[in-house]
């Protein structure tokens, strides 16, 4: 089970790297004025999203494997699973935002994306505290 735990941590870390960086690209896309720069940022965002999506799936698979292997239970786990669902929704919403950028339909300012970029940081903090401290 330690190998499963190690791979879960590796894939979760990689997933979060993508969740931290993708909205930063959106900040720049919301501010860009040149077509060439916009095209480059769109390509970067597309490749990052396409790369990080299977990594997210692997993080979830290894996490479920751990859950079944260890049989975790408790209020902390229910809250953690709810937060993971929010992360999955956040991930797919990032994909939706990417589609809108590709269609040149952006309704948010760069400031909005800067705040939007903080969501995974807060969720990561909450999940780590729940898993390590198990306060509930």
Question: How does this model look, in words?
Answer:
This protein is mainly α and 136 residues long. It has one domain (2-133). Helices cover 85% and strands 0% of the residues. The protein is built from five helices and no strands. It has helices at residues 2-31, 35-70, 75-102, 110-116, 119-133. Helix 1 runs parallel beside helix 3, helix 1 (2-31) packs antiparallel against helix 4 (110-116) and helix 3 packs antiparallel against helix 5. The protein is elongated and about 50 Å long. The two termini are 24 Å apart. The model has no long low-confidence stretch (mean pLDDT 95).
Notable characteristics:
mainly alpha, 136 residues, 0% strand, elongated
Please write out the topology.
Elements: H1 2-31, H2 35-70, H3 75-102, H4 110-116, H5 119-133
Order of helices and strands: HHHHH
Derived from helix and strand composition plus strand pairing, the structural class reads mainly alpha
Query: What proportion of the residues form beta strands (DSSP E)?
Result: under 5%
Sequence stretches where pLDDT stays below 50 over 5 or more residues: none
For the largest beta-sheet, the strand count, sense and barrel status come to:
none
* Number of separate strands: 0
What is the CA-CA span between the terminal residues? Answer: 24 Å
Which outline best applies? elongated
Number of domains: 1
Roughly what is the average pLDDT, rounded to an integer? 95
Relative helix content: over 70%
How is this structure best summarized?
This protein is mainly alpha-helical. It is 85% helix and 0% strand.
């Amino acid at each position: 089970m330690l190998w499963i735990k190690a791979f879960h941590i590796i894939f979760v870390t990689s997933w979060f790297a993508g969740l931290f960086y993708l909205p930063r690209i959106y900040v720049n896309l919301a501010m860009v004025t040149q077509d060439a720069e916009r095209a480059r940022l769109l390509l970067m965002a597309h490749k990052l999203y396409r790369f990080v999506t299977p990594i997210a799936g692997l993080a979830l698979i290894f996490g479920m494997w751990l859950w079944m292997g260890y049989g975790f239970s408790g209020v902390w786990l229910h809250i953690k699973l709810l937060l993971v669902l929010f992360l999955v929704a956040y991930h797919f919403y990032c994909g939706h935002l990417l589609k809108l950028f590709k269609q040149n339909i952006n309704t948010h300012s760069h400031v909005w994306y800067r705040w939007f970029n903080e969501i995974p940081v807060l969720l990561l903090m909450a999940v780590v505290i729940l898993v390590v401290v198990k306060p509930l």
